């Protein structure tokens, strides 16, 4: 799609020329399309648990009114649905907050080593529950300029995903978490030995609400926004997110961030 402006140019004594300027509208259309899709997806994601909640309220007010066993069961499902809605709204708000601050680069000096170690501690019970060992290789004193909560979110989302989707089919294989300085950058990576994803999905994984298997994601409490949040945080920190994955071989998510040069303190 192009938008064209035609302006006549006249020089005395010469034939009239025309200046044609064209502006590419493809990008504008794409952005508009994404916005429309996003609103439709978000509404649908919120509408589903809401419909289920309303259904249970009606059942509790009607047929199940005097059935204590049914009431307890329905209330616990309603609680789960409400929690799902809360997670979704929290993720939508996080994403919107990060987007609003995209042009401001956060600059607090954050000890990424300590931060990742802390996130690993909080996720150890989940790893044990899923019977996945965590293998750590964290270089000490890796400091990056950034926003502590957002950087924690990167580690949390990537490790949680590896624990949710990275279960190996051949017995317990570890999720490998590493952090190292490479020149003026810090490289954080999470590798799993799970089923991996087919090549065609890889470029789309960071799109909002894109899931390879929506049923599995929902069953594991996913909102479909985790990697979109990771990508936005990485971009705000002027870093890069790399994804490698192959069916049957597992996945590798690698985040490269500008680091603070310890020798010069900048
Ligand atoms: P979700 O809330 O669905 O987990 P994410 O944005 O975090 O949303 O991830 C999007 C999709 O990417 C997931 O639904 C899953 O299909 C896929 N995915 C993410 N991490 C992995 C992984 N480590 N292994 C395989 N698939 C993954």
Task: Give a verbal description of the structure.
The chain is α+β, with helices and mostly antiparallel strands. Helix content is 46%, strand content 23%. The chain contains six helices and nine strands; from the N terminus they run E-E-H-H-E-H-E-E-H-E-E-H-H-E-E. The protein has helices spanning 26-61, 68-100, 112-129, 148-165, 214-219, 226-236, and strands spanning 2-9, 17-24, 108-111, 134-138, 143-146, 175-182, 185-192, 240-246, 250-258. It has a five-stranded mixed beta sheet, covered by helices on one side. Helix 2 (68-100) runs parallel beside helix 6, helix 3 packs parallel to helix 4 and helix 4 (148-165) runs antiparallel to helix 6 (226-236). It is globular, with a radius of gyration of 24 Å. The structure holds adenosine-5'-diphosphate. Residues 157, 161-162, 165-166, 192, 194, 197, 205, 211-213, 217, 222-228, 251 line the site of adenosine-5'-diphosphate (ADP). Residues 41-261 form the Histidine kinase domain. It catalyses: ATP + protein L-histidine = ADP + protein N-phospho-L-histidine. This is histidine kinase.
């Amino acid at each position: 799609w192009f938008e064209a402006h035609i302006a006549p140019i006249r020089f005395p004594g010469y034939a009239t020329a025309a200046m044609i300027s064209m502006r590419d509208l493809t990008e504008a259309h794409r952005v508009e399309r994404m916005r429309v899709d996003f609103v439709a997806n978000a509404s649908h994601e919120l509408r589903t648990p809401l419909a289920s909640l309303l259904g249970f309220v009606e059942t509790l007010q009607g047929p199940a009114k005097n059935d204590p066993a049914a009431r307890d069961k329905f209330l616990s499902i309603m609680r789960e649905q409400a929690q799902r809605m809360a997670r979704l709204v929290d993720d939508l708000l996080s994403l919107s907050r990060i987007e609003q601050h995209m042009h401001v680069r956060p600059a607090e000096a954050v000890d990424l080593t300590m931060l990742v170690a802390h996130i690993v501690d909080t996720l150890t019970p989940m790893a044990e529950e899923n019977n996945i060992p965590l293998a750590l290789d964290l270089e000490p004193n890796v400091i990056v300029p950034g926003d502590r909560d957002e950087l924690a979110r990167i580690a949390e989302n990537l490790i949680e995903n590896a624990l949710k989707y990275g279960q190996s089919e051949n017995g317990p294989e570890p999720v490998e978490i590493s952090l190292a300085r490479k020149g003026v950058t810090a490289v954080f990576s999470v590798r799993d030995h799970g089923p991996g994803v087919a090549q065609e999905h890889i470029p789309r994984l960071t799109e909002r609400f894109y899931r390879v298997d929506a049923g599995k994601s929902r069953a594991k409490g996913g909102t479909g926004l985790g990697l979109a949040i990771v990508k936005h945080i990485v971009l705000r920190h002027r870093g890069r997110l790399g994804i490698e994955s192959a069916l049957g071989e597992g996945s590798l998510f690698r985040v490269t961030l500008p680091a603070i040069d310890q020798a010069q303190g900048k």
